Amino acid sequence: MIDLEELARFRRLTLSCWYLTGPTAVGKSQLAVKLAERLNAEIISLDSMAVYREMDIGTSKIWIEDRNGIPHHLIDVVDPSEEYSLARYVNDACDKIAEIQLKDKDVLFVGGTPLYLKAMLRGMFEGPAADKEFRMNLQKKAEGKDSEYLHSLLKKVDEVSAKRLHPNDTRRIVRALEVYELTGKPISSFQKQFDNGTPADKCKVYVLGMQREKLYARIEKRVDKMIYDGFLDEVKLLSERKLKISQTARQALGYKELFDYLEGKLKYFDAVSLIKQKTRNFAKSQETWFRGLSECRFISAEDPHFEGVQLNDNEPLFAGIAASEGEAD
Question: Could you give the domains of the chain?
Fold first, then answer.
């Protein structure tokens, strides 16, 4: 099921790239342009929602005029009505790496989607294709029963996955049961291959950070600026499309809350407050993810230093950044 030689080739390719990540609103996009100029690199977005067209303000895409001529890839590549999977992203990103390296340029990944980062550094287990008949039979068995039922079935065949998954995480539980049914092996036995990381000194993965109080203040200002810039109007236009947006796109941070407001499920100010709260929670979750990846080196947003690359030219790299708190992340 897993070709170890292919996995090794994948890691050699992806670990040859540079990565700049960090929590939302920390200032990755501005720094990335300067880093790309020094590296003679092109940028590949590492953001699961930036792939969607017409979702600009809420995803804090870096405006073309702020890119200083540096090509940015995997931004605005699919319609909001489409689902865009992790597997598709990995395939698209690998194609872009090859394309950029053929130009004798470096590759710099920039963004804060932790699952995308992990998949690019370690690979991912795709597994067998979905079996609709098995899923339908499983759904019939689960009818009238509580969420613990499917979880109990998983516990019998894959105790490792059962411990990892919450009983309410039905989608992943069904997938784990499906993989066991189709392969005769627990999904956790395949996923182990992707839990082994590479030491940080063998990678070029940098996590930008700052004191949490400062980061939370930036998040507050950033959400306020998004609202001022017309975030609600952007969501209204999406809600009026003939082609309804996909479930994945709809769940994007901020969009879900404003859709709920438009549908009368939330009051406006409650929706905005919830966006701020969920963004703070997401930033905290991102930091936890990054700490769990051995590949990551942690650097300060106020005084960033990259091994082998000098960026500070007698002027703090983040000088004046407070004036653009609400811009790209």
Answer: 4-125+195-324 (3.40.50.300), 132-194 (1.10.20.140)
